[in-house]
Amino acid sequence: MADTFGSGTEAERERSNFRIGALLVEPDQNCISDETERHRLEPKVMEVLCALADRPGEVISRQELIDEVWGVEHGADESLTRAISLLRSVLNTDKDLHSVIETIPKRGYRLAAEIGEVAVPDASAVTAAPEEPVAPFVREPWRRDTEISPIRYVSALVVLAIIMLWTGVMIGRSSSSTVAVPDKSIAVLPFENLSGNAEQDYFSRGLSEEIRTLLTQLDELKIAGRAPPSVGAAEDLDPQALGRKLRVSHVLTGSIRSDNDRIKVSAELIDTSSGYQVWSHGYDRLLSAQSLFDLQKDIATDVAGALSISLHVQEPNRLLGSDTDSLEAYNYFLSAREADVFGMGDRSELLALLHKAVEIDPDYGAARVALAMNTGAQAWSASTPEEAQAFLAEGQAMAEDAVRLNPDLAQAYTARANFQALDDNWLEAGRDNRAALDRSPNLRILHDQTIFLMRAGRVEEALSIAQRGQSADPLNPDRAATLAMAYALLGRHEAAEASLEHYWTLQMPPGGWDAYAWTIEMQRPQTLESLTALCERLVAADPSLRNLLAPVIAALPDRAEALEVVETLFEAGAGAHPNRFEILAAIAAQLDDPELALRIWRHELEGTRLRLMRIWGPAYADMRRLPGFASLMTEIRLPPYWREFGWPDRCRPAGEQDFECF
């Protein structure tokens, strides 16, 4: 059988440790670390890095790397693409995906960094210590030290300082002057609608969003996340203030006017440090779908030229929204995108618009992707498990159609992977995610990968991607919400709270404490008093939960009595409503009954796998140690995926076939 990613089946040669900048690379440990964080790599990923490090500054072809690391043809090409993506996420501490490992078009890859040696200590002065598992950045709950060494204490203070600094940046508690602005960075603002019809605002904003998406394909250029509709090309626009807020060196702004069968666009690029215009241009085109796609590419290419970035832009048919010849269908797509991106409409309105786009152009792959994801998302609020499964099945069929219609559309693969995982086809889902990364590792794809990895239990890896997404897209509430969940699942509660606060400020209109916040806070240890307060707060936020939680709240002064109430509610089917089984399971776990929590989760997962990621948090550590948990993971077919793609943070192999979780 071909050697698969992360299998570790072939003997690995011993390699000496080395440095890449400030990073320490330990090949024999499959680890890369700096002063604050330690990343575990899959064996094949480390082999790719070592092959590049053996020849620093030299261009190595893809085939050479495949021959050296895999020695096989089938599946190795996509494995190499994934390995490069993972290495960039770890090596580039400035969050720039392509600065350390460079892609040389049509030739291969080059490690653009100096390799440093690591001094080998005198063997006589070193006392051999028993080998122990590599410690991740967050201390594992099963490793309980009786003492904390001064080094660990200082390291903890350093980490805390970094988290506090990051928190201040994210929620505006620190001065913007302390934040470094990358030289090659840009924000694309919503273009101003000069057509005299406010109903056409969605078109001007949608067009600028498509330009932003295209620019994400340019290497070495950091693209800020979408700006909300309130930020636009107004007369009193202050580019310097925007530069500080969005942390970019340039902003692209402009205006759009449509007259009968023509569209006129004026675009300008502004240096946010000086406020000066560095480039501007006017475009006058016939109003058709193809002319719009050409216009988007022309503007992005001109902007790249103005920034002196002479790198390749992928073909338009690889970009979301550009695979239709129907201007009418494209209009409906942009209108739906407006409601989706900025939260300016309800889901029923969004679905109606996407259905119209697909009715006009049945081959519109990008519209089918959006329709698939939003159809499946209805399962979150389904009234019964059967209704949820129906929504997911419908969404999966649409995702399958999207892949068939446009095999180059990266998000079609992550959409299909999402549904495959929810249907227990984890291996196929993992392979589809690889295919998506191979086509376009943009922010949308990386966000989808984050959700997938958290469901699969690979939360450390998901966090790394989520942090990059938040850095690149700081005004996107989805990024902040996902980051908060990743922190919570890893037990980093202060960072989770900061991300959650940031998420609330980004909602439109700004929101506050809700069921999502309750889910995150329930990963933190609770006393009877704090658990009672949280349940009361949840009822206040969602009065529909009063009948479920009132008897629990009344019984909570007595732990045993409260557990009896939770079990009675579960047996009576009181959880048969969206998220209510999860609520009961979380309370059972906090009341130190992991077996009851596992019974409830088993019942929940028989309905849908949507909330699967929650089980990897610290609140369920005791539940994961139960034999029944490993059996449950086997039933939903996760172990074969782990063996091929990498083990989760909280499970590890025990022999060839067995595994244990903690």
TrEMBL record:
Keyword Repressor recorded: no
GO biological process: phosphorelay signal transduction system; regulation of DNA-templated transcription
UniProt entry keywords in alphabetical sequence: DNA-binding, Membrane, Transmembrane, Transmembrane helix
DNA-binding region ranges: 15-113
Name this polypeptide is given: Transcriptional regulator domain-containing protein
GO molecular function list: DNA binding
Domain OmpR/PhoB-type positions: 15-113
